[in-house]
Amino acid sequence: MPGTHGHSLPPVPRYLEIARDLKSTIESGTSTPGHRLPAERILAEHYRSNRQTIRQALDVLRQEGLISTEKRGSFVRGDRPGEAHARLLQAPPEAQFPLGALSPRAGIAASTRLVWEAAPATYATQLGLRPGSRTLVHYYTASAGDRVIQHAVSYLSPSLIAQIPLLARYERTLSHHTHSDLRRLYAWAADAGLSLEHNEQLTMAPGDDRSDGVPQLEIHREVRDQHHRTVEITLLTFPHAEQGPIYHFTSPARDVRPPL
């Protein structure tokens, strides 16, 4: 018992108290799916706390799959508690990293390489790096026979590495993980409480040796988290335009019950 040896249990952190109160409001049905939570400033005033504590409380709710956060604010999810978080951890095929990469199958071989090197100067500032500073860089190549049909280079930010334990371990022992499988990167990010937004620009670039001089399709992708930090920059190249990307998206139906 707490008082047996003259010790008492440590107090519950304030952010957990706030998270529990918000959670009870959501689970009671007071805040319905799609409802936008009050702004951090308003929540801080309501709970007589600071905004950093409110952010920690909201992070707890995101990790439990109760809310999602975007530029417009934090919203109550329509899934039952636990279901959304479980789906994020499963990393559906369309969410694999790098997005749009071909999976190995008959006639197509894929190879990856993870290195610790400097990002181009044009990317460094966006990623929160000093010019010349190194970060984790992921290379991906898909080939059909002796012809490269897809190539991707991804630069990961220090903020992303710091929040995903597995990436931090790769950073420390990179020489042992040069062929690391990062396909579940977006699931790991979700598990860390990150809500990611993808922005892409498609261009036709001049041909090179890989495309036999034929113009090639390029996708420049920037991924940002809910704090508007750039966490990934990827250049995905298709040396032969006929091998362009095909995306599959699903939009789950809401649980709408017919009127009685």
From TrEMBL:
Q: Which UniProt keywords apply?
A: DNA-binding, Transcription, Transcription regulation
A Pfam family: GntR
What InterPro entries does its record include? Answer: Bact_HTH_transcr_reg, Chorismate_lyase_/UTRA_dom_sf, Tscrpt_reg_HTH_GntR, WH-like_DNA-bd_sf, WH_DNA-bd_sf
**A single MF term (Gene Ontology):** DNA-binding transcription factor activity
GO BP, one annotated term: negative regulation of DNA-templated transcription
Q: Which domain of life does the protein's organism represent?
A: Bacteria
Q: Where is the HTH gntR-type domain?
A: 12-79
Q: In its UniProt entry, what is this protein called?
A: GntR family transcriptional regulator
